[in-house]
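Sharing a chain and its predicted structure for anyone who wants a worked example. Both blocks are below, sequence first, C-alpha cells second.
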Amino acid sequence: MYDVKSMINEITSKKEINNISFTGCGGSLACFFAPHYYVTHESKKLTTVYENANEFANDTPANVGENSLVVCASRRGDTRQTVAAAKKAKEVGATVVGLQLETGTPLEEICDYIIQFKDTGADGALYEESKGAYALKIAYELVNAVEHNDKKYEEMVAAMEKMNTIVPEAQKAVVPDAIKFSINYAKNEIIYTIGSGTAWAAAHQQTICIFMEMQWINSSAIHSDEFFNGPFEITEPDTAFLLLKSTGATRAVDERTLAFLGKFSEHTTVIDGFDYGMKELGEVSGYFDHSFYSEILGVYNHLLADRRQHPLSWRKYMWKYNY
C-alpha cells in the first residue's frame, strides 16, 4: 500500500504548498470531486481547483504554480489530455502526483510521484487502495500537514479504515435491490441520476461513464437542489430516476427532492448509504459518499448490463477512432 502520509510530508518539507488542484477526464475526474470538496470545506489556507484535464492544459488556472500540488489520474496512464495537463503543471512549477492502474506509462515519465491504485476486491485489494481512496487520502493528509486539523484528520483516518469492511459488505447486501433495479430499469431509454454533496459526483460518473458510455442510455446528472430550478418539469409518473442519498450535511437537500418525487414519480430508486453501514463513519461520512456509491453501483451496473444483454465493454466510438 502506498504511503501517502510520507509523500505529503516529503513534499511539504521541500516547499510551501498553498494550492492543491485536481485534474483528469471522465471517471478519473469524478474521483477528485470528494477530495476537492473536502479541501473546500475543511481548509482555511489552501485553494483548490477541480477541472477537466483538457481545460486545465489549455486554460490553466492562475492560482496553479510553484506552490501547488497537482493531482491527476488516468487508469491506463496514457489519456493524452491528462498527460498534457501533467506537463502543463510541471511547466508552471507545480509538484505533480499521478494516479494510475497500469505501469510503464507516459504519465509516470512526467509526474514527480506515481501511485499505483487497485480495483477494490481485485486480488484481495482493500478499498483504501482504490483510486478514490488514494485521492481522498492526499487531500486530508495535505490539509493536516498544512493546518494541523488533528480532530478531523483522525476521524478521516478512522473512517478510511472502516471503509475496508463497509464496502465489501455493502456490495453483497445490495444484490437483491440491484436485481430489482436491473429488471425495472432495463427497458428505459432515459435515466436521470440525482445527488448532492460528494454523492453528486457519483451520480455524474454513473451518468457519463455507465449509462451513456457503457449502456448507450440517455442520461443527465442533476444536483438535488438544482432539480427545482428547471429539471423537475420533466417529471412524469414513469420518468426514471436514480437518487444517491447523501450521508453527510447535504442529506436535507436530498430529502426535499425525495418529498417531491414521492408525490409525482412512481419510478424512482433511492440508494441510501445509511442502510449499508455508512453511519459508522460519523460526521465525516459525506466525504466518502462518492467512492462508496461508485463501488456499490458496480453491482447494479453488471446486473443491468446482463439484463439488457449489453456488455459493459461495448463501444461504438471510444478507442476506435482518432478523436
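Comments welcome. Strands lie at 19-24, 47-52, 68-73, 95-100, 113-116, 190-195, 218-223, 241-245, 268-272.
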